[in-house]
Write a structure and sequence with these properties.
With 292 residues, the protein is an alpha/beta fold. The chain folds into two domains: 14-257, Rossmann fold; 258-292, no CATH class. The protein contains twelve helices and ten strands. The strands form two sheets. The protein has a six-stranded mixed beta sheet with strand order 6-7-8-3-9-10, with helices on both faces. It has a four-stranded antiparallel beta sheet with strand order 2-1-4-5, with helices on one face. α4 packs across α5, α4 (114-124) packs parallel to α6 and α6 packs parallel to α7. The structure holds adenosine-5'-triphosphate and magnesium ion (MG). The site of adenosine-5'-triphosphate has 11 residues, from α1. Residues 56-57, 180 line the site of magnesium ion (MG). It is a peripheral membrane protein. This is ABC transporter ATP-binding protein. Keywords: ATP-binding, Cell membrane, Membrane, Nucleotide-binding, Translocase, Transport. Residues 16-256 form the ABC transporter domain.
């Protein structure tokens, strides 16, 4: 391991690439994903949003090879993770490049202690014991879990369990961390802490983050890029400012834009205020706009 959790990588800037991807689960009529095409560069923090059944989880499953290796169906196009085609690469090998965290932390835990939980993946890869201990200690520290390393993961709070689940994925030293609604079972404090942790990992450890979330306000604040899925297609893709300025599209598909953006737009439409100003995304931007 190097100084940072992600070992220095020589590969290209592109961490993951979807190239005209279509996916249909076996025995279903409608494709879950249609003509999905995008590249994620190293260091990006991507938020994925979309209503139910828009294909978010399916996209996550493609990011670590669960599709097509553990699901049957029809796949066309290519998904490459650090240049490796998911079709031709074993999931154990892909796990060193891309890790997936699910909504329910408890379902991802299996070991008697937090330490063992983190050591489980690297041990399965057959890494030397000293290297495993060094990695686990580093990740425990990074995720603020040192004091819990001897505890049973099942005795922890939901937020702590989700941090253990994230830590166990990080112990595999992935370039890309994919999280499918990781805060859906957490309270507001636990949710905020997960977002802050993702930001720290992204900015300090160089980990590329792809986060599926319903927390629009937090995504507007933390993500560097937002992708909106609708009926299996990529509908919007850009910076939070670019994407959330398409208020009409959000209304059509039934997702709200950040509260401050909505208030600002109503103030302009209904009261003619700040006609030439960009709508704010966050409370601090609104305060700036109001010169408070
Ligand atoms: N294991 C599966 N077998 C068959 N069809 C599936 C399976 N998983 C998902 N689907 C279907 O694929 C489509 C996309 O589902 P997916 O779970 O990817 O959407 P989602 O955006 O994650 O939804 P949600 O917000 O409910 O989590 C839906 O029509 C869904 O019914
Ligand atoms: Mg889902």
């Amino acid at each position: 391991m190097n100084d940072t959790i992600t070992a220095k990588r020589e590969e290209s800037e592109t961490v993951i690439e979807f190239d005209h991807v279509n996916w249909k689960y076996a025995d279903t009529e409608i494709p879950a994903l249609r003509e999905i095409d995008f590249k994620v560069n190293r260091g990006e923090f991507i938020g994925i949003i979309g209503v139910n059944d828009s294909g978010k989880t399916s996209l996550c499953r493609l990011c670590n090879g669960l599709i097509p290796h553990s699901f049957t169906g029809e796949l066309s196009g290519n998904v490459r993770i650090e240049g490796e085609d998911v079709r031709n690469t074993q999931t154990a090998r892909l796990a060193k490049r891309s890790g997936l965290v699910f909504p329910d932390p408890e379902a991802q835990l299996s070991q008697l202690t937090v330490f063992d939980e983190l050591a489980f993946g690297p041990a399965n890869l057959g890494l030397p014991k000293e290297e495993i201990i060094e990695t686990v200690n580093k990740v425990l520290h990074l995720m603020d879990l040192d004091s819990m390393k001897s505890r049973s993961p099942y005795t922890l709070s939901g937020g702590e369990q989700q941090r253990v689940a994230i830590a166990s994925v990080l112990a595999m030293n992935p370039a890309l961390l994919v999280l499918d609604e990781p805060t859906s079972n957490l309270d507001p404090d636990g949710t905020k802490k997960i977002f802050q942790t993702m930001k720290d990992l992204n900015q300090n450890e160089g980990i590329t983050v792809l986060l599926v979330e319903h927390e629009i306000e937090l995504l507007a604040e933390y993500a560097t890029r937002i992708i909106v899925l609708n009926q299996g297609k990529k509908l919007l893709d850009g910076t939070p400012r670019e994407v959330f300025s398409k208020i009409d599209i959000f209304h059509q598909i039934g997702i709200h834009v950040p509260q401050m953006t909505q208030v600002s737009e109503s103030a302009r439409e209904d009261y003619g205020l700040w006609p030439n100003q960009q709508d704010p995304l966050t409370l601090s931007e609104m305060i700036d706009l109001l010169n408070l």
